[in-house]
Amino acid sequence: MKSKKRPNLFQSIFVLGGFLFLAFLFNALEIKIHLAIFCAWFLAMFVGKMTGHSYKEMEYSVTKGIYNGMDAVLILLSVGVLVGTWISGGIVPSLIYYGLKVIHPSIFLLTTLIICSLTSVATGTSWGTAGTAGIAMMGIGAGLGIPAPITAGAVLSGAYFGDNLSPLSDSTILTASMCDIDVMDHVKGMFPLSLIGYIMSGIAFTITGFIVGGGKADLSQINQVMNSLDSIFNISLISFVPMLVVIVLLILKMPSLPVIFLGSGLGIVWGIIFQGLSPVSAISSAWAQIPSNTGIDFVDEILKRGGMNSMLESVGIIILGLGFGGLLDQIGIIKVIADKIDNFIHGGGMLTISSLIVGFLGNLFGSAMYVSIILTPKVMAPKYDELGYSRKILSRNTEFGGTLTAGMIPWSDNGIFMAGILGVSTLQYLPYMWLVFSCIIVAIIGGFTGLFMWDNKNDVRMSVVNNNIEK
């Protein structure tokens, strides 16, 4: 049996650089990114064969990588169904209508940040937040004349803030598990720096709101949007009921997939009872959205989103990306890069920066948040233990580098989903993801100054707790 060896730096750069080259080339030629990721599989397999890995082992690593991220695929499809039925059922149009009625342009961006963060904390899902409250805020912002990329930045800042701190979030639970600490210890470790970053981004969105929305809003356009929605949909406060049901059930820690399915069912019922749709049309909106013709382009663009069918292209990218991430883990390519970084780590500052870089690389080359969350603790945990830092710091930096940056990569699961659901390309909204930048800056400052950098003396690990229970 051929012995395995780790790839050298040149081989690692060959695979990662080759993938980036293909990604940018295919994007310039307007070829789907799916093919770039698929081709990258075979770059990795070529290096894998050179370093002693059998094809069977690499094939298994692909399927294992895909399996590890299937939760994301299932949630993505279910959120597509939810959005489709909630638009055709009049729920999203009602949110847009009443939002235009009560929200002033000057405080719109701050309001968006707060609403999306509260929704995400309550539900534990950034994707669900973007697909419901996020779509509604995009519609309201467009009606108020706020540039769509800035609105998307406020939506994502709120959605990721809540997702990071919610004990219901799958990314929060997975990160705590991978770092071998209790979920609530992880949340407590996240909270101080997340709150500082949230306040900083809130101030930035407030100032921006007065700049871009401080002038007198075009009331004629607002009234035109409201009248168009009112003429097509039966706008009513009762449309808020399905959203409240879903939020309450998620707060009660019910499983997200069945809750989203129930919310979709309520959207179908609302479409039949309150929008006058036939049962066939209402159910079909779960697969593909019913076209709306309001006469206003941006409103029609928002109302055509959703449906399981709209998510299939994203599912393809996520599956290919997860497979690529599995290959990189099997061959050990990311570990090679991380070891090079390890040579520069001598304290909390460089430890934090290195963790953030590894998390970002997981998203960049693994194309999925789950790859980053799984990879970063595996690579960085020994260094935290060696330097005596609490695993809470590891879990916090894993979330900052992995979860928060996932939406910045155009071909990652989060980047694809957020761009598709909000109707703004990743590179357009990226400059306005101010919560991400704020949290990363604060984390780096904390690393170098020792602010909220706890040692491991009082660090309670899940493994210790579990061993005591077994005894």
Automatic annotation (TrEMBL):
Localization per Swiss-Prot or TrEMBL: Cell membrane
Major location (coarse): membrane
TM ranges: 12-29, 35-52, 73-100, 106-128, 193-212, 232-252, 259-277, 315-338, 350-375, 432-454
GO MF annotations, alphabetized: antiporter activity
GO terms for cellular component: plasma membrane
Keyword terms of this UniProt record: Antiport, Cell membrane, Membrane, Transmembrane, Transmembrane helix, Transport
Family: Belongs to the NhaC Na(+)/H(+) (TC 2.A.35) antiporter family.
Protein name, as recorded: Na+/H+ antiporter NhaC
Gene name of the encoded protein: nhaC
